[in-house]
Amino acid sequence: MIRTASAVRRRARVRRASILAFLAVMGPGIITGFAGNDAGGVTTYTAVGAHYGFALLWLLLLSTAGLLVIQEMCARMGAVTGKGLSDLIRERFGVRWTIVAMIALLIANGSNVAAEFAGVAASLELLGVERIVSVPAAALVIWALIVFFSYRVVERALFVLVLAFVAYPISAVIVHPDWDSVMRGLAIPTLSTQQAALIAALALVGTTITPYMQFYIQASIVDKGIDREQYRFARVDVYLGAILTGLNGFFIIVAAGAVLFPAHVIVGSASDAAQALGPLAGEQAKLLFGVGLLGASLLAALVMPLSTSYAICEAFGWESGISRNFREAPVFMGLFTFLIAIGALVVLSPNVPLIPLILVSQNVNGLLLPIVLIFILLLAGDRTVMGDQANGRVSQVVGIGTALMASALSIGLVAVTVFGL
Amino acid sequence: MPYLSEIQNRRVIEPNGNVVGRLTDVAVVPQGQFPAAQWAILATPGGEKVVRWADLAQEIGHLRLRSRLEATPPAQLPPDALRLARDLLDKQIVDTHGAKVVRVNDLQLSEVDGQLRLVGADVGLRGLLRRVGAEGVAERIAGVAGRRLPRGIIPWHLVEPLQAKEPEAPKTAAVRLTIPHQKLALLHPADIADVVEEMTADERVAVFQQLDLETAADALQEVEPEMQAAIVSDLPEERAADILEEMDPDEAADLLQDLPEDRREELVDLMEKEEASDVEELLTYPEDSAGGIMTTDFVALPGEQTAAQSIDQLREKKPDPELTYYLYVVDAQGKLEGVLSLRDLVVAPPETKVTAIMDPRVLKIPAETPKEEVASLIAKYDLLALPVIDARGRLLGTVTVDDVVELILPRGWKKRSLRSIAR
């Protein structure tokens, strides 16, 4: 068939229009993907690669698939109902279940905030700053930023720091890993039933699919005012974000698995973790890793307490918003202040080892993930809530599979820990 | 007065005491001020059953069907019926601009004219606690701490369920509620203040933008002092200045006292000259002194004036009723010479000078007198107002009984009084 010039132009116009439409609604998914790249993520992926080589890559692949499907559900719920996740949980399940969900979210995010402050402490210790100085300073600055200034500008500046982690894909390629064993790790599921292995596995799932991200993506979609019409473009953005999270984990695990695993490095500190960037950055690896980790930790420590407060106040109908003062929105202001204070205090408690603290926090996320997933699956599959946009069979099956996987790991870990099997 | 959460899940029994199921929901047609409960939705072993509310009798701890379930005619919900638990409970109450206000924690029902009616939405902490069965416990704990749990109920006639925009959209996603501002304006200013105190900051500002000036000023005076300052800070300056002009000068001065200095000056500059100078004068006195609480509106009669001239003066000025309890007589320098009542003036021969009929032994206080002392004087001598003078004896203003009522009334009589005592 011979195309006329005008037909070609028309096609180009159509394509340009849809690219514009995509650009207009893109963001939430990719930003959420980035947000997953926090202290918990980087540390967990590095530890998994260093201690188990490529052996757990299959679990990352499954988690990423689960993440993709679940993020899409949440984004779809946001677009169809125009309401946040905690909103829907309250309206559909009433006060008691809302309390259950919100306590789960509060604990998961509280442990995340502690992990972020541990990330701040670890990264600045690399650069020679004691945590007794860095953590209180970071907590105060973050609190003041939220209460007195606009944190949006700072948010963007921190994004730039996080770009230091682009070093991981480059490292992963230039160290020439054994790609055959990488492929085997991806394709063949193996898992030791030792406690340490289960901790690593649950942390891997918990950090890839955090409860936090599900609330965050849905809120972002609602905030952007994305409706059913625009959702087909937003969906691409959501998929890209989930894939970005997976790729990010993949490259960190590969870099760590290729550099640290053969050297039998046990990741006990940030400087151990920084070695994974050694082949690329040489002497500057610590600096590069430190800057990236600092940016990622600060960014998440800024956003996480805030969005937790928003979600909880939304569920209970309490006044929220950073333009309010303590008198007008006592619970909102109190909650994020509490989260920042607790997170900083945990890290400052004497002799707490930072890297294990971060890994444990991601386990807490993994343990609580099934609770949040059940709510998401019940809501997204409910026709009275979603109408004709309710979950199809594939989404529901993948979602249930993900919940089962997280539950099985959680139960396994608890069993091993309690009964010492 | 039952709440939905208290009757929901009650057992439903047949006349012979046989349990047939539980009450899951109550349905109304949202028309009129307080819609009546018309249908009950029952969960029975045979599935969901809808019966007319009139076929049920409320008894202690359960509901009794008036006849056996099989003999009770099944009812059909009309399409515009609202199921309280499904369609209203836990939903957000949003204002007309779509900003978030609060959430429906419970629904208040009340027996009106022999019919159970929906009378209010409980949006407070109590409702939340009641839903998890912790209201009693929390009340006791609060009681130990010497406090009471606040109630937060929005009367139903101030609330409007919003109908779904898209007909095919699920009903639960579309029912929202709204407090229409037009309805608000019909309330007494004191009631408006109560509703406004429950709102978000944005919503409050929107309300004070829309009310007419006089109502806005009256309502603002009734709002608790800390919130007054917040509202005035958030309003556009022109609007804030217009409302301040309409307020009683002493109330306006009190409010301005709570604002940061630069904002206060801006607003006074924007006010009309006359009102501004009254307010500025009041601002020079400490907030808790006679000068700080007095009003500069009063009736002053020149001493050389006759009774007839004075009556003409009143007729022309038309002062507010509370200013006519006492008429003050001043000399050419504005010095307070005496006081007389409206009755004294009216019964006196028209050509008598007011100095001849006045009582020169007038109780007066300097502007620096602490307000507690003012209050006890007013209470002791049963006065309606007390004149306030400066060092040279010139009449500055009056403190009326309503300016100190909160210091006189017993604790808890009026919620504002409680707050000002606590301050």
How is this structure best described in words?
- The complex is a heterodimer of chains A (421) and B (423).
- Chain A is mostly helical and 421 residues long.
- Chain A has a single domain, classed as Amino acid/polyamine transporter I.
- Helix content of chain A is 79%, strand content 0%.
- Chain A has 19 helices and no strands.
- Chain A has helices at 5-25, 28-35, 39-52, 57-81, 85-126, 131-148, 152-162, 167-174, 179-187, 195-208, 211-223, 228-259, 270-274, 278-281, 285-316, 330-348, 354-380, 383-386, 393-419.
- Chain A is globular, with a radius of gyration of 21 Å.
- Chain A starts with a helix and ends with a helix.
- Chain B is an alpha+beta fold and 423 residues long.
- Chain B folds into four domains: 4-80, SH3 type barrels (Roll); 85-181, no CATH class; 186-284, Alpha Horseshoe (MgtE N-terminal fold); 300-408, Roll (CBS-domain).
- Chain B is 39% helix and 22% strand.
- In chain B, the strands form six sheets. In chain B, strands 1, 2, 3, 4, 5, 6 and 7 form a seven-stranded mixed beta sheet that branches. In chain B, strands 10-11-12 form a three-stranded antiparallel beta sheet.
- In chain B, β18, α19 and β19 (385-389) form a beta-alpha-beta unit.
- In chain B, α7 (189-197) packs across α9 and α8 (201-210) crosses α10 (225-234).
- The radius of gyration of chain B is 29 Å and the shape is elongated.
- Chain B starts with a helix and ends with a helix.
- Residues 164-174 and 411-423 of chain B have low confidence and may be disordered.
- Chain A binds chain B through residues 80-83, 87, 90-92, 94-96, 99, 314, 316-317, 319-320, 323-324, 327-328, 383-387, and chain B through 89-93, 100-105, 123, 128, 131-132, 168-173, 200-201, 226, 230.
